[in-house]
Design goal:
Rossmann fold, five-stranded parallel sheet, alpha/beta, single chain, 2 domains, globular, 284 residues
Length: 284
């Protein structure tokens, strides 16, 4: 919003909430709707349509795949199909999403901008005494993540698995207080870099342990420098070691927050955002 307001645009922020079925707010007509939302909104758009406006842009933060083995992300593609023809453009957070859309929807304008974190949301790591001494995972359940919980429980590694119902300030506080944040793939067949969870963990000042992940090199992310990474079976052992090594956690968070400021602040992408709006406005 700050970028758009600073460029002289009139902007109104509308919170769609987290319902998957409620009617959309009746907010009247707009020149452009910039839809920044998670998968919870897809079913809703498919049923009710996208909000009224001359142009609709979706900022896509959820990966889609035609791989039927990805039984979480493949159904998301079906939900997207139900309203894709109502969109004028998609902003993809990474090359993987952009490739999928270009192949399946060649007539849909697709541009790429990553997930971003504003400077005001980057927090100094909490002092050791204010941390829980535990790791945390927040996200929807899936067979791969259920297996992860079993592995951590069997290894007696202290992890809070939060499957639903944690949003906003409460979610941010839990993330800030945890010693380690976990990134576990919803689908073992779809090992993309989850920018949303990773960047939010770094902004909270929390060390990050990822299940083996693709797509880090393009962002200059180094395992062992900005985060730890391990195969799922080895994650409990890696997490236990990281929970005991406060110096390692602090060093990784320091490097990660420097990377946030170097590559993922909105001001680095402001011109690109304005170019996207200009491209969409010129569409007929």
């Amino acid at each position: 919003m700050d970028v758009l307001l600073g460029a002289g645009h009139e902007v109104e922020y509308i919170d769609l909430g987290t319902s998957t079925s409620a009617p959309l707010p009746n907010v009247g007509h707009s020149d452009i709707n910039l839809l920044i939302c998670g998968i919870y909104a897809f079913e809703r758009f498919g049923h009710h349509g996208v909000p009224k406006g001359d142009k609709n842009i979706l900022w896509m933060l959820d990966p889609l795949t035609s791989d039927s083995a990805a039984h979480v992300h493949n159904p998301k593609a079906g939900l997207f199909d139900a309203f894709a023809n109502q969109l004028d453009a998609v902003i993809a957070m990474d090359a993987q999403i952009q490739r999928y859309l270009n192949q399946r929807y060649p007539g849909l304008a697709t541009l790429r901008i990553p997930y971003m974190v504003a400077e005001k949301h980057i927090r100094t790591p909490a002092p050791r005494l204010d941390r829980t001494g535990r790791a945390i995972f927040m996200g929807g359940t899936s067979p791969n993540r259920a297996r992860a919980e079993q592995l951590f429980n069997a290894a007696s590694v202290p992890v809070d698995f939060v499957w639903a119902g944690l949003w906003g300030a409460e979610r941010d506080a839990r993330l800030h207080q945890a010693a380690v944040a976990l990134g576990i793939h919803a689908d073992s067949a779809h090992t993309y870099f989850d920018q949303f969870r990773a960047l939010d963990a770094w902004a909270a000042g929390t060390a990050l342990l990822l299940e083996t992940t693709d797509g880090l090199d393009v962002h200059g992310i180094g395992p062992g420098v900005h985060l730890m990474m391990a195969d799922l079976a080895d994650m409990p052992q890696a997490c236990a070691a990281l929970l005991k090594d406060a110096d390692k956690r602090h060093a990784m968070v320091t490097h990660a927050q420097a990377l946030l400021r170097e590559k993922f602040l909105p001001q680095h992408w402001s011109q690109k955002m304005l170019e996207v709006l200009a491209v969409v406005q010129d569409m007929r």
